[in-house]
TrEMBL record:
The keyword Signal applies. The lineage of its organism: Bacteria, Pseudomonadati, Bacteroidota, Flavobacteriia, Flavobacteriales. This is Outer membrane protein transport protein. It is found in: Cell outer membrane. Its main location: membrane. Keywords: Cell outer membrane, Membrane, Signal, Transmembrane, Transmembrane beta strand. It is a multi-pass membrane protein. Belongs to the OmpP1/FadL family. InterPro entries: OMPP1/FadL/TodX (IPR005017).
Amino acid sequence: MKKILVSTALLAGVLSYAGGFRVSLQGVKQLAMAHTSAHAEDASVAFFNPAGMSFIPSKLSIVAGGFGASNKVTFQNLNTLQSTETDNPMGTPLYAAVAYKPLENLSVGFSFSTPFGSTIEWPGQWEGKEMVQKLELKSFYFQPMVSVKLAPWMSFGASYIYAKGKVDWDKAVTQFGGELNIKDEKASGSGYGFGFYFRPDPKLDVSIAYRSPIDMKAKKGTATFKFPSASIYPLLGLDPATGQDKFTATLPLVEEYTIGLTYKVTPKWLISADFNYHGWERYSKLTLDFASAPVGNQADPTILVSPKNFRNSKTFRLGTQYAFTDMIFGRLGAYYDESPYTDDNFIPETPSFNTYVITGGVGFKLKQFGVDIAGGYALPQARDVKNASLGFYGQAKAQAFYLGLGLSYNPF
């Protein structure tokens, strides 16, 4: 019975989506310029660096936006040449933020975002059905923040992060001709962020920011087994009527370091660049503690430890904006995002690829109102899957694209 769960890192999708197959969608204007961060034109800077609020040109700024994100993953068994493709629904990440200056050198704000979340759906009877059939992920970040202008050219900001998450995972249990559902809708955790924002020259913005690790704690997760015969349930310590058991887990979301630069080459043309560093080595394993079911792999049979062997990863971003008029802006960008794990650790529930992304968009400004449109096309690099611990071998490919619409309002 151990093999039913030993090969599965329950809830790991919340994590590897964040570090690997992550879609950076926390600002439409930012996405158009490769999701670079050193832009303090409105409250959208709040998610990236709270210190940037001090340099927003208006006393009050409000932004909101949303995206449509589509992705498809294909896996091919190189021995049988059988190919399987996901049928994923469109993801719809959202964000909103507000920033206000009650005093000349003090800004306060709030940011809401859904930085991680998607649904991956493989065919019910595909060859990896014991690892995943369907996985739905959702997360919500709530960030109150404050920024203080220490000098006309420098500010410091900090934020508190409260995170809520949900996971709903279906997989097959072929040993008993059944299925297993892993579900938790109340995972939560907290962390913090801080940063410095510099404008030493009217032409140059520099953003340095840090976002702390967050331990997402699932305290009341439910594992539901569905077998043709309920007689198996008591043998595994499950509820004889529902086939359910409880579990707890701590899911380590890792820290992120960001350095961003924006330089105004001319009054109409600017160039931005970012470097992101993600400390994914912290996610070396995942431990699940079941209430009763002896499905673990430790001395205590109710405890399951799954090695993950993630590594630190980096992202490099370059974007540009050109003002055609005082009202119309064109934007382009490109970035490269590293996967946090090797081919030997590839997992189909949250596929991750080394990915190139091309972005672009336009912005329109009418007095206090702004409208931004952006899109991105991802070019994930194919992977030779060699996960011996899961017995999973083949080749994986993916493609993805994103569209976004953002609104901004700087009334005074």
